[in-house]
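Structure ticket #2291
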Amino acid sequence: MTNDLLSLSTNEFIGGIETVAPRFDSASYPQQNLPADDWTLLTKAGVLLPTLPKEYGGRDDHAEMCEVVEKLSEWNLPLGMYVTVISAVALRPIVLWADEEAKREVLPAYAGGDPMIAGFASTEPGCGSAMSAMTTTFEEVEGGYRIRGRKHWQAFSISAHWWLVSAKNETRDRREYGYFIVKRSEGFRTLRPYEPLGLKVIDYGLNEIDAVVPRHRRIAADGRTLRPMVEMLMASRAMMAAMGCGFLRRISREAHAYAERRRIGPGPQSAIRFVRYRLAAIDASYTVCSALNHHLRTALNMKDEMIGSFPAVQAIKTVATERMLSSAHHYQQLVGGEGYRSGSPTNISAQAFLDARVYTIFDGTNDLLSQQLTEYCLARTDGRALSRFLAEWPLTASAVTAHGLDLNFLDRDLRQEHLVLAGRAIAYAFAIGRVMRWAAETGADPRAARTAIEFLKADIAGVATEFELLSAGVLGGPTLN
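Resolution: structure written out below.
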């Protein structure tokens, strides 16, 4: 069946995904690990084909990768993450950097209709975002490498057939990082399953690795720094825009329908002005994610190295995931007590909030990514004030100029807490520019774009207020004035 999918046009191919996606509607689909038969249904529909090169039976299309995830996320947000982890996190590095022998061994299995699953094992107990502290080790042995250690919170901890595993080799005077393709049967086992609050279709747990892999299954990546790992996470972070776009399309549609249907006194809930404000906030978030998704599809390329897009990806991930969570909260508030009910027949807000909550944490917490974004900019100011740099930087200049953004509050000695907040402001300015570009290039409703930009400007003003709070000494000790 998958061979027939290779000759389809993009519209025909995506049409097939749109046909199967409603079967996983989060309003009725069980909150459980995805059964193998359902994964088979999705693989036969071709959800992994855009990731794979044509010589290995794929469609090899960046824009289709984005659109598949967007369409799935509209019906079931965790399912969008499910496909993203396998395609953008686990398989993409193999496609880009693995030895040809390793590609021939692994990739064809993902072009067929069999329910093959792949994961990326990086995070460890006692080692979250500081991956330099990982304790999983590798050493050269006869015929290949031995990898030993523990990993946890890996998507597909119990079910993945293949793994991309990060490890470290450290001696007294040298540290080297390595990335290896490991088959579960070679020595990857689950010690204990975890129970997440949301994303129930994905299984998580604590894993132990003691495996020997052949030499050709080491990924060709620079082992001197963790830069390759950062690159490997770029695609999934960027894909938050596609997930957010699909998810918020659904949330906007359902929130409006609920507010029109629910009666408050003589009229619908939607007649209440603050309800209309909440709906406007949801719609603005959908607009922002639509613009970020447009940037993902047209300005980025997951088929190539993405490290040069580091600042854009950091901004996309933080803004998109904030918008997802805030909109899920608005929706739940509109629904009231019924929105706290799991499996409610009138809405999906309880599950939507649980599923969206983790997005600001996974793939690097938003606080960490925001700080890194500020540090990236500061390293390139060349003696200029940060506000001036942002007024000239291609990723924010259009927003600063067109909307007269006042970012002068950033021009000060930035301590760690300021770095996090400043990164948010920079990301919001970036998002304003993407909304402007999206509106100009797609002919979108200019009123929707203006509203979204006003919400983003309010977010920047909120960061400025938080700077004032810090100056008032809310952390204790002397003020910074």
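Closing remark: The longest strand covers residues 204-214.
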